[in-house]
Design a protein that fits this description.
The protein folds into 2 domains: 105 residues, DNA polymerase, domain 1; 177 residues, hpI Integrase, Chain A, CATH 1.10.443. 58% of the residues lie in helices and 5% in strands. The chain is built from 13 helices and 3 strands. A hairpin with a 5-residue loop joins strand 2 and strand 3. The N and C termini lie far apart (61 Å).
Length: 309
């Protein structure tokens, strides 16, 4: 027989979340509870089938978050995301099983100390040139990888937004643009520079994706013909960064990642004096405050002229 925890956790994912949460959010919450259930089994010695709501205490949640920090080396931001998923479930339980209100309040009150804000990492003009030069030396997947990177550093796309692109999302007339589905399944239109438009046209021709019957296929695929994954993109960026760093150690950040390319896009626009509201819209931030918080220190650091990418 299923416990109350298992019954309501299943309903939470099957009935409640799909009503007004995006697929990305549901996926993130699912990952959180997979981690939590494994933690309960391995460290609290509570089997999934035996877990009850009464056992979901503040102490257990704090221990789980400490485990993420000490064993999984999760950042404060990641731990806050994990806590947010648990709090969402707790708020759901508040109305379904009201007998544990004090327990719910105690979990919601958990605080995770966030480190003081630091400047976002980005590539300087010289660093970007070295990085792109390494990409251009690629043979087998040169155009694909160049486009992946160009869309993040030249259009400000997130990794997930990039890998989910399909030919139907492209408008390659003049002026060119693409339709992006961002966080919360919110769509936005992103303008494309001429150089990026030409690369996309060449890529569509190379991959045979010009045909109307292939408009629904994913634009970027791996060596097996499947949609390239977020991990795959991270591996590509990391590999090029390692090679570029050997040539110019001081120009390529140690924490190089796809998101650093997105930071670079924002920095390029800040350096050119683009209005913050417009940068917000290009990045798909929900509010200008998010953009301001994210890049306020970047303004102070921009000393170098960035050429058009």
């Amino acid at each position: 027989m299923s416990t109350d925890f298992n019954i309501y956790l299943q309903k939470f994912f099957a009935e409640y979340l799909p009503q007004d949460h995006s697929r990305l959010t549901i996926g993130s919450y699912s990952q959180t509870f997979s981690l939590l259930l494994r933690y309960l089994r391995d460290y609290e010695h509570i089997m999934v089938e035996d877990m009850t709501i009464a056992q979901l205490t503040r102490e257990v949640v704090e221990n789980f978050l400490r485990y993420l920090k000490d064993k999984k080396h999760s950042s404060a931001a990641t731990r806050n995301q994990r806590k947010a998923a648990i709090v969402s479930f707790v708020n759901y339980l508040r109305y379904k099983v009201p007998a544990y209100q004090q327990q719910y309040d105690a979990i919601i009150a958990i605080k995770i100390r966030t480190p003081s804000r630091t400047s976002p990492t980005f590539l300087t003009a010289e660093g970007l040139q070295v990085f792109i030069r390494v990409v251009l030396e690629e043979r087998r997947f040169r155009l694909r990888n160049l486009l992946l990177i160009s869309l993040m550093v030249g259009a400000g796309l997130r990794t997930t937004e990039t890998i989910n692109l399909r030919p139907k999302d492209l408008s390659l007339g003049t002026p060119a643009s693409l339709q992006v589905t961002g966080k919360g399944d919110i769509k936005r239109t992103v303008p494309l520079q001429e150089q990026l438009r030409q690369r996309l046209l060449a890529y569509l021709k190379q991959e045979g994706l010009e045909h109307p019957d292939r408009r629904e296929e994913y634009l970027f695929r791996n060596q097996y013909g499947k949609q390239i994954s977020r991990h795959g993109v991270y591996h590509i960026v990391k590999t090029y960064a390692d090679k570029a760093r050997q040539r110019a150690p001081g120009l390529i950040p140690e924490d190089m990642s796809p998101h650093v390319l997105r930071h670079t896009f924002a920095t390029l626009n800040v350096a050119k004096g683009v209005d913050l509201i417009y940068i917000r819209d290009l990045l798909g931030h929900s509010s200008v405050q998010t953009t301001e918080n994210f890049y306020v220190l970047t303004r102070i650091l921009v000393k170098t002229y960035y050429p058009e990418f």
